[in-house]
Amino acid sequence: MTDPRPYSLQRRLLISMAVGFSVLLLIISWLLWTYARTAANRTYDLLLAGATLSVLERVTFDANAPTVDLPQTAMDILSLAPEDRIVYRIFAPEHGEITGTPDLPLPDGLTLSTEMQFYTADLSEPFRFAVQGRQMTSPTGRDWVIVQVGQTLRARNEQQMSLFLYGIGWLAGVSLLGLLFVWLAIRASLHPLRAIEGALANRSASDLSPLSGTPPHEIAGLFEAINTFIAQLARSRKLSEQFIADVAHQTRTALSALRGQLDLGQDAASDAALRDRLSRARKQTDATVHMTNQLLANAMVSHRSESNRLMPLDLRLLVRNTLADLLRERRMRDVSLSFDDQTAPEDAIRINGDEVSIREALRNLIDNAVRHGGAANTIAVRLMREDQDVVLVVSDAGPGIAPEHRAAATERFRSLDPVTAGSGLGLAIVRQVIEGHDGKMQLGTSRLGGLRIALFFPRLLALLLAFAALPSLTRAEELVIHAAADPQAMRPLIAAFLDQYPEQLPQPTITYVDYQTVDLYNDMLDDSVPVPDVVISSAMDFQVDLVNRGMARRLNLLTAILPPDWARWRSELFGFTFEPAAVLYNTNTLSAGDLPRSHRDLSSYIRDNEAALDGRIGGYDLRRSGIGYLFATQDTIQSVQAQRLMETLGRAAMRPYETTALMAEAVAKGEIVLALNVIGSYAMARNAAKPAIGVHFFDDYNLVMTRSVFVPKDAANPEMGEAFVAFLLSDDGQRTIQESTPLIAIRPPADAEATPALHASRSDTSFLPIRLGAGLLTFLDGIKREGFLRNWESTLRQTNAP
């Protein structure tokens, strides 16, 4: 029994909204509390980080032990939270405590790392700590120094509570005001529904005209659904009325004829006359049954056509199954029925169709052929492809249909031959089925002399390709690459990228412009130079600066192909090679066993062999080589011997070169016998090609740079640029780098061919990757850069002065 009291939609909406507001308020309160805690931690963690970094920068080695000149700025930074206590500690695992509060708690599982770590621990009261290490070159090798700074949580707890209370107060007030507006909005919004209710309640049962008016956008779908339903009712009523009229007329005629035969049989004067009348009555009964089946089939096809039940199906399989069912029927015993499948076996003959309707259409075509061609008829069914259609052809050896009568043969209740006349619905049903599938039907004369009927169904694949053929795919694209990289090394990568380009798309044109690193950087800053689609450079600091200026496009790449953390920045800049700095030497002049093992030893080695090495050492021209400047500045961070080494190189009259290739050629010819900080991948390639060139790595540290790539934000073809970057980082791209170029892949696939030299030493701690990030901007500051270069040039001039 139904509830006689209807519920209030308005009240339900208001209660639902109130409950929703309450739940949302609780969720937002929790999120707000979490956000307040995170914001407070982030704010005061920045103070800890700033203090830690400022202390870490002042750590040096004095004689044989580390020392620190504690900066005033570190304490000033921490004093921005005046209510908090402060503790700090500086120590070295190899040398013990340096200064500060000893034995402060460390995080569980602490590993020596240059990454800053934050954690909370109890020390009379809760403290928040920041800890970071730095690996420095000491007289005895590479030593770690750890800086640990902590402060209490009072200031951050107060900020967290303040942020939370401020936010929750405003949120509560807005929620109450929102509920009031929701109540008013619900009342106003339900008015159009009342109007629709009145319009439907006041119309008669026979009125199936659509609702008129312009409904609000929010209930336009309901309004349209009601009108669609009314239209369907109107069509269904029309079909029902037509079906009833057809059944009434055809059944009345058939039953009248049947009754006439039976009346005549009743009046028959002999048994022979009675049998004749009964035989006629049976034929009339068969015709009536056939006509009834055809009427029902016609109604079924009309209904399914209206309900749009098309689904993907395999037409080949459907035809085969239908013919197999027909051959089991008694009336087909004397019929010669064949099926010729002219489509390729591997083709998927799929269409959007209604299986029941198509099966009924095929059965009607076979029935017509049997009825009009006789029991010994020959019927050939053929399936073939024609352009973007699938064609089903049924041919027979019957009398056929004259061309002038073919149009009339597909009309309802039209029988052209009174001898074999049926219901006149067979071809009309077939026509209705094919029209419901957006196809066409053709009537003609078959090779057997009878009727040939071809049904054309659009292929599903053709429909899909029509949507896929977008305008952007109809023309070849151009990919413009500006790169500070050896074109010989990049050529296999570009060829491999083109090999993987989809075959159905036009092959793109690749425009590759070769640069020196400094020139590429300057051109990217020059508004008059056209913007490329891809920028590649070995000068990591220049690349970071360009990205930091907002010139790069954010790329959404698969996690599986991303390089290590140190070789990517902001989802905009990505490293794709692993290239350590190396020393080249002339094997005809120098012996590998005599070469220095560390940067500290290098200065002594040059001084001890001053006569033999004078004017025969090569290095980068720091003003012309971005990678040379990067290695030189990073050396000053890693080694306390950098300035001493620079002075030693000046006294030895070091020759400046712009590229690794020029230095390698000079070493091979004997013009110089040592080349410092050359790109390791090129060095090993030269070593393999020319035995006179040897490659040497230090034991203390070897800087590792990565060749990086980004897609400019204003690129003309950014999608293809992103595809190229994705290829460089993919397994196929990394395999190509490893196997077909002198470069070293940053993430070589496990099945890639191993390269000589390095690749067992990847995990060796002497290889120190340079991290992509804002830290590389330090030495790009105008004043700092110019001061560094002037000091370099001054050192070389003074030490070379007579």
UniProtKB/TrEMBL annotation:
The protein's predominant localisation is: membrane
Catalysed reaction, written as an equation: ATP + protein L-histidine = ADP + protein N-phospho-L-histidine
Transmembrane residues, as ranges? 12-33, 163-186
Question: InterPro entries, per this entry?
Answer: 2CSK_N (IPR013727), HAMP_dom (IPR003660), HATPase_C_sf (IPR036890), HATPase_dom (IPR003594), His_kinase_dom (IPR005467), HisK_dim/P_dom (IPR003661), HisK_dim/P_sf (IPR036097), Sig_transdc_His_kin-like_C (IPR004358)
EC numbers: 2.7.13.3
Residues of the HAMP domain: 187-238
Q: What PROSITE patterns does its record include?
A: HAMP (PS50885), HIS_KIN (PS50109)
One Pfam family this chain carries?
HATPase_c
Q: Which UniProt keywords apply?
A: Kinase, Membrane, Phosphoprotein, Transferase, Transmembrane, Transmembrane helix, Two-component regulatory system
Compartments, record wording:
Membrane
Entry's Gene3D superfamilies? 1.10.287.130, Histidine kinase-like ATPase, C-terminal domain (3.30.565.10), Periplasmic binding protein-like II (3.40.190.10)
Mind telling me what this protein is named?
histidine kinase
What GO CC terms are in its UniProt record?
Answer: plasma membrane
Report the SMART domains cross-referenced here.
HATPase_c, HisKA
The protein's superkingdom reads Bacteria
For molecular function, the Gene Ontology terms on record are:
phosphorelay sensor kinase activity
Q: Does the keyword Transmembrane apply?
A: yes
Query: Where does the Histidine kinase domain start and stop, copy by copy?
Result: 246-461
| Top enzyme class | transferase
